[in-house]
Amino acid sequence: MFVEGVHFDLGWMTAEDAGWRSLALALGDLAAKGAQPGWALAALAVPKGWTVEQVSGLYSGMHALAGRWQMPIAGGDMSAIDGPAVLSLTVAGRTSKRPLGRWEARPGWAIAVTGPLGAAAVALRGRRAHRVEPLIESGRRLNELGLCCGDISDGLVREMEKFAAMSGAGSIIQADLVARAAGASLEDALTSGEEAELVCVGPRDMVLGAGLSIVGETIPDRAVKLVGASLQSTGYDHFGRAAQ
Amino acid sequence: MFVEGVHFDLGWMTAEDAGWRSLALALGDLAAKGAQPGWALAALAVPKGWTVEQVSGLYSGMHALAGRWQMPIAGGDMSAIDGPAVLSLTVAGRTSKRPLGRWEARPGWAIAVTGPLGAAAVALRGRRAHRVEPLIESGRRLNELGLCCGDISDGLVREMEKFAAMSGAGSIIQADLVARAAGASLEDALTSGEEAELVCVGPRDMVLGAGLSIVGETIPDRAVKLVGASLQSTGYDHFGRAAQ
User: Fold this and answer.
1) How near does any CA of chain B get to the CA of A210, in Å?
2) CATH for the stretch A2-94
3) Tens digit of pLDDT per residue, chain A (244 long)?
4) Chain B residues with CB-CB distance to A88 below 8 A
5) Which segments within A101-203 are labelled E, that is strand?
6) Which one-letter DSSP state was computed for residue A175?
7) Burial code of A206-244, b = ≥16 C-beta within 10 A, e = fewer?
């Protein structure tokens, strides 16, 4: 669900950008599970102030991205709203094998990311429309190798908390191993959400074989711990996490 | 998609009622196609002013209805919104045979409804929470008999316009044959949306065999025509439809 003013802002992005971006983020869930996009449903609440061009722009942006996988926007719904626009997307995909769920993560596995993090935070700060590219092909390959992946919708650290909550296996993240996108601070890299990159966990050899950059490992303790002097000094205590 | 202030109003219904009602209306689409409920996804944008009790009440209302078919609310999403609440529901179901689409309607078929219409308009006028019962079992039976059905989400007349737009077959509706719910006017019966009842079309013998009340027939002309002196006098011209 994408809410105007929360997830997108037509003050500094076009409706096309907002449509693209929303569908791209929804497809991030499919990418994380190694699924090929099948179809999408789009429900839209339209504010009175919107123009027909804005509504059709939003759909154009979605169609432009969906077309890459011949993914039909197979249905949906439209309503008026006395408030901000709300776009609700449901996407369905298909995998060749059952993807691992977060609850199946085991302690002692390596944690890796598919690329540098923080690009979304940098784009947001610069009020620059950022056409996220969902990593459908990478996600398929990584899942087929047997890795357990998640999208980074709420930041890397938050993502590892989800793994911990569902599997019981926490994490130690080596902050200095987390590659940063151009212009991104360490805080951006660790906390920026709505990232295109995926985080994957699995046995160390499997992760190395996949060509990913290791940033930490899972542990028997349910906590998510950050290692790195720079972090202690930049005040990451407000996450309520132990810094070593 | 159900928008607070458009589709539900917590000023005179509980959050449980709103949740029930929204899921019931979403299930109306499955009922129309003869599908057994499978699973639902619920995405919710929550206004700052809502209480935890309201959020959980909304889900309770949905769960109470979903439980009838052991239908899991299998996932979803939640976001904040600076505006009215928005609930977006996706429901999936399964049919034993392919249901007929609206585009498959043929001229000369009978049009029938499953029961009296206008109850939703009466409830709305009285600001009375109205727990719509989705006609899942009736819908299954009618589809298995071979009828082509639709839910009445935007009123009977509007529904026949959808049939006309998709099949090329318009309708003649005999207004005096449309049974009215208690307290409903003829206008209510013809235009009230968010009804639980279904409208079905099919060969006359099939419709009679199904035990439905015939209210008109489909015609080769794409127009939707209303027959009944009372209609001409109550000003149905504003629909842009020819009254005979």
Assistant:
1) 30
2) 3.30.1330.10
3) 999 998 999 999 999 999 999 999 999 999 999 999 999 999 999 999 999 999 999 999 999 999 999 999 998 889 999 999 999 999 999 999 999 999 999 999 999 999 999 999 999 999 988 888 999 999 999 999 999 999 998 899 999 999 999 999 999 999 999 999 999 999 999 998 889 999 999 999 999 999 998 999 999 999 999 998 354 422 233 334 443 3
4) 1, 43, 77, 86, 88
5) 110-113, 148-151, 170-174, 198-202
6) G
7) bbeebebbebbbbbeeeebbbebeebeeeebeebebebe
Judge whether A5 and B45 are in contact, CB under 8 Å: no
Which CATH code, of 3.30.420.200, 3.90.650.10, 3.90.1530.30, 3.30.2060.10, is assigned to A102-239? Answer: 3.90.650.10
Among A90, A153, A162, A194, the residue to mutate for chain B (most B Cβ within 10 A): A90
Angstrom distance (rounded) from CA A138 to CA B46: 34
CB B58 within 8 A of CB B45: no
Helix or strand run (H / E) with residue B36:
strand B36-47
CA distances from B6 to A4, B1, B91 (A): 18, 10, 21
Which of A98, A196, A194, A197 is closest to A148 using CA atoms? A98
Q: How far is CA A237 from CA A144, A215, A231, A240, B174, in A?
A: 37, 20, 9, 5, 72
What are the domain boundaries of chain A?
2-94, 102-239
Does B80 reach chain A within 8 Å, measured CB to CB? yes
- Contact criterion met (CB < 8 Å) for B82 and A5: yes
CA distances from A179 to A6, A114, A187, B1 (A): 27, 10, 12, 40
Question: What one-letter code names the amino acid at B115?
Answer: G
Angstrom distance (rounded) from CA A229 to CA A235: 10
Q: Which residues of B touch A41 (CB under 8 A)?
A: 90
Is A137 exposed, middle or buried (CB count within 10 Å of its CB: 0-12, 13-18, 19+)?
A: exposed
**Are B92 and B59 a contacting pair, CB within 8 Å?**
no
Cα–Cα distance, B58 to B87 (Å, whole number): 9
**Chain A residue numbers touching B81 (CB-CB < 8 A):** 3, 6, 83-84, 86
d(CA A61, CA A44): 14
